[in-house]
Design brief:
The strands form 2 sheets. The chain has a 5-stranded antiparallel beta sheet with strand order 3-4-5-6-7. The protein has a two-stranded antiparallel ribbon with strand order 1-2. It is of the alpha+beta class. The protein is globular. The protein is built from 10 helices and 7 strands.
């Protein structure tokens, strides 16, 4: 996986700290946990689940919130947890470290106060989420495509675009292509697998739809058990794929 940011990094060292957190020299697939700690300090919150140690750096010095609507669901598809959008954090940096090798496998930094991400692509993704929230779907699609062109490995942007195209039944074939790309980049994301399941369903492939929706639910249980809205959303799609809902109900 490619480098996702290349400028200086000032750490958030503890919750309620108003220190500005900026992108640093981190390369997915190369940077180590030790280097992250040297850059960011000890994470206030860590979890060891599945294949990863998840390091979470949060700044709650000032809360900012978003409405829980279409925009929040779109962001969920991209892997931005709902509790962040609900206004719990002003800034955050989340790092997924492989527990076997100690290597960073995924990372993102978001400043919800000014909608800045760790790179230009992530910032564009946050802008796209605002467009989705406001109901400006065409503008959101354009921004998401721009985010992907800025960083072809930004699986959150790729997956959010796939989710939007599939969920709103805009372009089922393109949705499937993008969703497959997102899963290839980060296969352990429940959000990516859930979107891929929906995209398969939009393409009338129930078996693959069920396969990836079931995988998404298992990954949610492992990594994000509190993501209740996303879990219920994928459960509903799984029922649809299993024939428990009709097309009109879905």
């Amino acid at each position: 996986m490619a480098a996702i940011f290349t400028t200086g990094f000032a750490p958030i060292r503890q919750e309620h700290d108003d220190i500005d957190c900026k992108p640093g020299d981190v390369i997915i697939g190369k940077t180590t946990k030790r280097q992250i700690v040297e850059l960011c300090g000890l994470a206030p919150s860590t979890r060891i689940v599945g294949n990863y140690e998840i390091l979470e750096y949060h700044d709650m010095s000032a809360k900012v919130g978003k409405a829980i609507g279409l925009g929040a669901l779109g962001a969920l598809a991209g892997g931005i947890p709902l509790e962040r959008l609900a206004g719990n954090y002003k800034k955050e940096a989340i790092v997924f470290v492989d527990i076997t090798s100690g290597i960073v496998r995924d990372y993102y930094y978001h400043n919800y106060d000014d909608n800045k991400g760790h790179d230009l692509s992530e910032t564009t993704l946050l802008q796209a989420d605002d467009m989705i929230e406001d109901g400006n779907v065409d503008e959101a699609i354009a921004l998401l495509k721009q985010a992907i062109s800025q960083n072809k490995n930004n699986h959150r942007a790729i997956n959010t675009l796939a989710w939007l195209l599939a969920e709103m039944n805009i372009d089922s074939k393109a949705a499937l292509t993008y969703a497959q790309m997102a899963v290839e980049i980060f296969p352990d994301s429940p959000y990516n697998n859930g979107t891929l399941g929906i995209a398969y369903m939009r393409n009338n492939d129930r078996e693959n739809a069920k396969k990836h929706l079931e995988k998404a639910l298992n990954l949610f249980a492992l990594y994000f058990p509190n993501a209740e809205k996303a879990i219920e959303h994928d459960k509903a799609w799984l029922k649809f794929a299993s024939g428990e809902y009709t097309t009109s109900e879905r």
